[in-house]
Amino acid sequence: MSEALEKVSQEIEKLQDEMVKALVELIKIPAISPDYGYEGEYDKAQKLLEIIKDWPFDKVEVYNAPDERAKNGVRPSILAYYYGQNGEKSPRIWILTHIDVVPPGDMSKWTVTEPFKPVVKDGKVYGRGSEDNGQSLVASLYAVKAMMNLGIRPKRTVILAFVSDEETGSKYGVEWLMREHPELFRKDDLVLVPDGGNEEGTFIEVAEKSILWLRVKVRGKQVHASMPDKGLNAHRVALDFAYHLDKLLHEKYGERDELFDPPESTFEPTMVRGPADSPNIAPGEHEVVFDCRILPRYSIDDILADAERLAEEVREKYRKEFDGEVLPEIEFEILQRMDAPTPTDPNSEIVKLLQEALRKLRGKEAKVGGIGGGTFAAYFRKLGIPAVVWATLDETAHQPNEYAWIKNMVEDAKVMAALALL
């Protein structure tokens, strides 16, 4: 291990209490998307700016994506630069984390603490957003602060990006930044997205599946449940369609690719909505959402075409006319779509650099692979910029009693510093 990395690692350990305090303060602030009826990330971004206001970053920039639903009408993202040994001419590494979190979910399942009242217990910090993505956000901050405290300039300029809207599709986050400010990004940048991994910190994600969130809207005709022939039960139509769509997708798109975990495409019905509020009403409307994670070999357009063909078959099966109106209607709404980009080359510089850092700091050999989840890395890969996803996580994200291991936060900070120093 180099002398600089050893000193920085020791400094990070000294900063552990400060790291925990910062994570606790950030968890206290709900930064939940307006898509879920909340205010967004503004207050949390302000707290983050307050934390780093006296730190000697070379440049801190705030980019506000307009969103009239959010507090103050914006979804903020923050970029903080710490220049390398050759100043602005130094090669660059991005470390991107997100400041938004998902809603708490079932409050009765939060048994350790309330979601936004963080608790430090048994070496862990509990609270919504602790692991996803607070642990890595704080780790990236203090990887840089340790270098600042020691007066060490790294080999590579570090760009810490704290970005909005990761949990609901990045329309107001990375996607907006790349569209509105393409000058920020360079083809020779290296990118780490610490938003996925395993408990040992030995998994480097280099590929993602395509993502399709598809809402199916069925409209029939509401009627009293004792007289079903006088209407058209939207539930029955939707259940028939959803069952056959699920079966079709699994059978037709069922090949495996061992690069990924899980190795096959997944097609999961998730959200369901129907307006019937009484047992004796056959409802006239029904919605179901499919979360599809699709191997890159398959086309989302082909899947959508198959869904439309099946919808036409179901329309004909249940076809009825009411006062000149032909029912049922079956419509599709794409809530999110991300076509899988070309994977990051397992022999690329960022992969080799991360593997070297893990060897030096942990004595472990990391493997590469693909995942079904979506991350910021996909957006960089679409630009032809190599990006990896890595962190040391128990994968408690989105669960009640979400937690982050303090030891993982500290040790991951060391690895992040190594990526800048080696």
TrEMBL record:
**Alphabetized InterPro entries for the sequence:** ArgE/DapE, Bact_exopeptidase_dim_dom, Peptidase_M20, Peptidase_M20_dimer, Peptidase_M20A
Domain Peptidase M20 dimerisation residues, every copy: 206-318
Q: Which UniProt keywords apply?
A: Cobalt, Hydrolase, Metal-binding, Zinc
Q: What is a GO molecular function of this protein?
A: metal ion binding
What this protein needs as a cofactor is:
Zn(2+); Co(2+)
What superkingdom heads the lineage?
Answer: Archaea
How is this protein named in the record?
A: M20 family metallo-hydrolase
Please tell me the species this chain comes from: Thermococcus indicus
Q: What is the lineage of its organism?
A: Archaea, Methanobacteriati, Methanobacteriota, Thermococci, Thermococcales
